[in-house]
Amino acid sequence: KPHIVLIVVDDMGYYNLHAPPHHNNSEIHSPAMARLASEGVVLTNYYAYPICGPSRASLMTGRFPGHGISEQMFSPAMAKGYNSNLTMLPEKLRQAGYATHALGKWHCGFWQRKFLPTNRGFDTFTGFLSGSEDHFDQRTVDTCGPRQVSATDLWQDLGSGSGGSNAFGLNGTYDAYTYTQLAVDIIRSHAQHRDGQPLFLYFAMHNIHGPMQADQRFQDIYDEGMFEMRRTINAMVSTADETLSNITSALDEVGMATDTLL
Description:
Number of strands: 11
Radius of gyration: 18 Å
Strand order of the largest sheet: 9-8-5-4-10-1-11
Number of helices: 6
Structural class: alpha/beta
């Protein structure tokens, strides 16, 4: 059985990367994506839902929104979650003998414990439960739901059976850096301690979903005269590209790359 590393780059448009010959925006610095495209398979004709929440529920359940899962995007103040009667992908893979880990954005429900990632098939989860948050300090602000919510959204469950708890101490760093390091740690630990067991790692990145924020070192890649929002979005794409580079390097480092579906 191959290892599976599933990385979702959130809300990235078709022209938000440079990976010729299919994606030719040479303004953007994305060498890792370009290499993956040249060495792998690029899908250019497919169907997806245009909203982040229902689209990831489709990815987890194999159902199109409106066919067993809600077409609605859940805000932090809404007491809802995606259909708990449907078996999600990680549960199927766990039944097949996989170790299953999730990082990053969940956004499939959290108001009851049955909706949490570790009750939907994942052995562990570290990330945020809502749809977006500040990339730097991990505070989420909801002005769309029935009540305004402002709170730190960072949750961790390492498989204790308790359902997890707030991961204070991990907050305060640009979230792509935190989750990328955790992904590398999971890969290294799996290679060291889980001999023969296949790995399923689901990394749902926050980039390039709003709020539009990027670390200065990635903004510095782009011309200061560029339209500010465009420069920030490009920098967020380059951040995601570095994540891909670091994860593929970790797979190479531990000898898992040739047995991994990425």
